[in-house]
Amino acid sequence: MERLDAFMARAAALYYAQRAGLGRDFTTAPEMSQAFGECLGLWCAVTWQAMGAPARVVWAELGPGRGTLMADALRAVREVAPGFAAAAEIHLVETSPLLREAQARRLAAAWHARFEEIPPGPMILLANEFFDALPIRQFVRRVEGWRERWVEGGRFVELPCAHAGEAPEGSIREWGEAAEALAGAIGARLAREGGAALVLDYGPAESGFGDTLQALRDNAPADPLGPPGEADLTAHVDFAALARAGRAAGAATHGPLPMGLFLQRLGLMARSAMLARAAPAQAGSILAAAQRLVAAEGMGRLFKALALAHPGLPIPAGFEG
pTM of this prediction? Predict the structure, then answer.
């Protein structure tokens, strides 16, 4: 029997070691539109300028998939902000050997297994659809008190626990303990050494109740408690909790705000229109992908943008107002 977060961690390790289903089990924003990575690259360049344009800056990404986002971002900054491109040292946090191979075909970078391994210095960090894959704990309110979910034989087992708080019977509270710890570590580093981090993921702006554990296999829902490693397990990100952890560590926080609004402020639709004009045969798919990223009925509302930054920096691009 395993606690749910331990089960999820083991399942993720197996999944990314042997399956790595990006594009097969799920599709992320960078794979939909090159404008997504380009806009984030320019966000990083503007952030670097706000930092005083240091001669060396760590440019890091957590869970970079096949390297598409960073490759698109790097291409954009080489064209528009060559000073930032020259100053940036690319560091990727990735544990999957399969995905590291894919990233190496696109990027010259240094690889790390954990965030804490990234070398010191001012840093700009991207985390797109990374926090949703971190393990969570779940607590269920019963008449006799709170119970924590464990996993045994492909089903949940509820055991007594010390969790506290009032809630209606049957309520489920999720706790992303690993996500909060990482947000705190990122916030502490930014407060100490300077820089900013941008988190893009799906989940609510405010903490609440609900069971958001889900699994995808071949782009279709699957049983989250099925054989570990056979499907991609995720849960909604508690953005309010991430922001609290970052602030507690000394960082300033901005957002969360809907990703669609954030991307529109960065000019994603205008850039997509330019790409469509340059490739008329693909114009329909280019514009449809952009619309999916920003529209409320697509990814624009469920997905959020959150920035952590050194408290001395101005409000990051896209978060004004």
Answer: 0.96
User: 43-69: per-residue pLDDT in tens?
Assistant: 999 999 999 999 999 999 999 999 999
Given a contact cutoff of 8 angstroms between Cβ atoms, the answer to whether 78 and 111 are in contact is no
Distance CA 93, CA 133 (A): 14
Crossing angle, helix 177-193 and helix 4-18, to 10 degrees?
Answer: 70
Cα–Cα distance for residue pair 88/75, rounded to 1 Å: 13
The full set of domain ranges for the chain reads 9-133+176-309
Q: What is the mean pLDDT of residues 291-313?
A: 97
Q: Identify whether 256 is preceded by a cis peptide bond (ω within 30 of 0).
A: yes
Residue 190, number of CB atoms within 10 A of its CB: 27
CATH class of 9-133+176-309: alpha beta
Q: Are strands 145-152 and 137-142 parallel, antiparallel or unpaired?
A: antiparallel
Alpha-carbon gap, residue 54 to 40, rounded angstroms: 19
Task: With beta carbons less than 8 A apart as the criterion, state whether 97 and 15 touch.
Answer: no
